[in-house]
Write a structure and sequence with these properties.
With 144 residues, the protein is mostly helical. It has six helices and no strands.
């Protein structure tokens, strides 16, 4: 009963949250799932690793398909590229059993999460997010 009460509470929180807070929750969920996948990888639990990787990829897919290219300006294409890169390294990390790929995805998502938290809590514009995505895109271009 307690679990169903908590689930109902979570659904209410999501239903009444603004878009920015929902995005924060999605990033937190993706990072949590990747952390659980990394732990399962360490423990040799392939089923649990696959389950959590798939949940993280579902969240990343949702974030990608939710991008608003009309109102998002230059940030939407950058986020789309970052999400594609994150999706690729998560998939590679899972297939090859490479924890460092999952950790890289968690770091990237963590940077985006920090920017969205700043936006969400202060009500400021997306300038913090734009700066974060610009820096990450530049570093990926150099690394890739």
């Amino acid at each position: 009963m307690a679990a169903s009460g908590y689930n109902a509470y979570q659904r209410t929180q999501i239903a009444t949250a603004d878009r920015r807070k929902i995005i924060v929750l999605l990033y937190e969920g993706a990072i949590s799932r990747l952390s659980q996948a990394a732990q399962a990888l360490d423990e040799g639990d392939g089923d649990r690793r696959a389950y959590n990787v798939n949940k993280a990829l579902d969240i990343i897919h949702f974030l990608t398909t939710s991008l608003d290219f009309e109102r998002g300006g230059a940030i939407s294409p950058r986020l789309e590229q970052l999400y594609a890169y994150i999706r690729d390294i998560v998939t590679l990390g899972s297939i090859e059993g490479r924890r460092e790929k999952l950790e890289e995805a968690m770091r990237l998502l963590g940077t985006l999460l920090d920017a969205w938290r700043a936006i969400s809590s202060s009500g400021q514009s997306t300038s913090a997010l734009e700066e974060s995505t610009r820096e990450m895109a530049a570093s990926l271009a150099v690394a890739g």
